[in-house]
Amino acid sequence: MEIWINPACSKCRSAISLLDAEGATYTVRRYLEDVPTEAEIREVLERLGLEPWDITRTQEAEAKELGLKEWARDAGARERWVKALAEHPRLIQRPIITAEDGTAVVARTDEAVRDALGR
User: Active site residue: 9, 48, 50, 77, which one?
Assistant: First the structure.
């Protein structure tokens, strides 16, 4: 199990605390320092069953600078979104846990963290 975190994020700290309380074995990836490649982002999206715009923090200043709210959200625009997430990792929703069964969850709630633990 791997968890993508930003240590400054309270949701990330909560997820780590819950993983620790449950005695989970996991690897921490500080994704702002160890930036995911486009291929890794595609893999996580597949595991999540989501599109890149579904995991994009559109309220971030960088998103506004890029004009993401105006970008198309369709198959033709998918790679543009993936590239933006790889180039601007702050835009990636967090935390993301990749579960042992090959799936992943955006673990913003205790329920989502527990869901990942049960997989």
Answer: 9
Helices marked H in the chain: 10-21, 38-48, 61-66, 78-87, 110-117
- pLDDT at residue 86 is higher than 90: yes
Alpha-carbon dihedral angle through residues 76, 30, 118, 24, given to the nearest 10 degrees = 170
For residues 81 and 105, membership in a common domain is answered with: no
DSSP 1-17: -EEEE-TT-HHHHHHHH
Cα angle 65, 67, 72 (rounded to 5 degrees) comes to 155
- Does residue 52 contact residue 43 with C-beta atoms inside 8 Å? no
Asked if the structure places residue 38 within a domain, the reply is: no
Structure tokens at 11: 């949701």
* Active-site annotation holds for 9: yes
Q: Please report whether residue 56 resides in a domain.
A: yes
pLDDT at 2: 96
